[in-house]
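Team,

Forwarding the record for the chain on the shared tracking sheet. I've put the sequence and predicted structure together so nobody has to dig through attachments.
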Amino acid sequence: MSGVIRTQDSNFADVPFASAWPVTVLNWDAPDIDGSLAIHVVDAPSKSEELGTFLLLHGEPSWSHLYEEWIPRLTAAGYRCVAPDLPGFGRSDKPTDQSWYSYERHCDAIRYVIESLDLSSIHLVVQDWAGPIGLRQAVDEPHRYGQIFIFNTWLHHAEFLYSDGVKWWHDAAADPNQLGGDMPTGRIVAGTMRREHDYEIVQAAYDSPFDGYDSKAGARAFPAMIPFWAPEVGGAEQQQRCYDALLAWSACPIHFAFGDADPVFPYEQAELWSSKIEGATLDRIATAGHFVQFDAAQDCLNVIEKYTGSN
C-alpha cells in the first residue's frame, strides 16, 4: 500500500487559477491505496448555450494550471471545460510510492473522471503524457468524442524515433545531481518557456502543488515510465494499439498543433505523424516550447477556434 499526501489549499494561495473556477472532487477507489484518492477536476460551465465539452488534460510535471488562459475564452465561446489533475499532480492526492505510478493506472484515473461526469461531445486536448493517456480514452470509447487536438506529444510505436531531448530528460530526471530527487518542478516548466513570461510567477505556480521529496513521487515516476526504457509500466503495447487505431481513424476530426521550439517532441515528428492520418490537419505554433498550451496560449486557442468555428 502506498501512502498518500493531500496538498493543502494554502499551497495555492498565490495562484489565482486555483480559486477561479468550480471544482469537483472525485474520490477514486484506486488500487493499492488505503482508502480513496481525491481527484480534483476543474469543471467550468459554459457562459452561454453549451456547444460541447473541452476535456483539457495535462502531463508531467504540470497540472491543470496549463489551461489558465484557455478556460475563460472557451467558456465564453459556449463550451464547458473539464480539466482534471492527474493523481500525483496539481490539487489531486499524491501517492508517495514511486512504484505505484503506471501508464495503466493513469488511464484508469482519467476513464473514471470521464465516466463519473458522463462526458460526451468531447473536444479532447492532449500534450506530453496526456497524449498516451488521453488518446487511449478516445480509442476505447470513440462515441464520446467530437474532435481531438494533439499538441506536443507522442504515442510509442515500433517506428518511433525518440529525440535526444527525450533521452536527456529521462537521464536527468533519474539523476539527483541534475533534476531528480527533490525535482525542481517549477524550474523545469518555467525553463521550457520560449515566449516572454514572468519566470518567477510561472515557477511558483508549478512548484505550488508539491511539498518536498515525498510529494514528487509521480513527477519522478513519469520520466522513468517512458516505454523506450520501461515498456511494461509505460504501456508500450497499449500505446502501439492506439497508434494503429488512429492510423485508421474515422470517428471524428483530428487536429495537430505543435510548438516548433520543443527539443522533446520536435515539429518534424508532428509532420510525419499527421501525414499518416487521413484528413488530419497540422498547424505550426512558432517559437513555442514544450508546454505550448501555456507558453503560447492565445495562439493555441486561435487554432482551436479555426476548427470549432467559435469566436
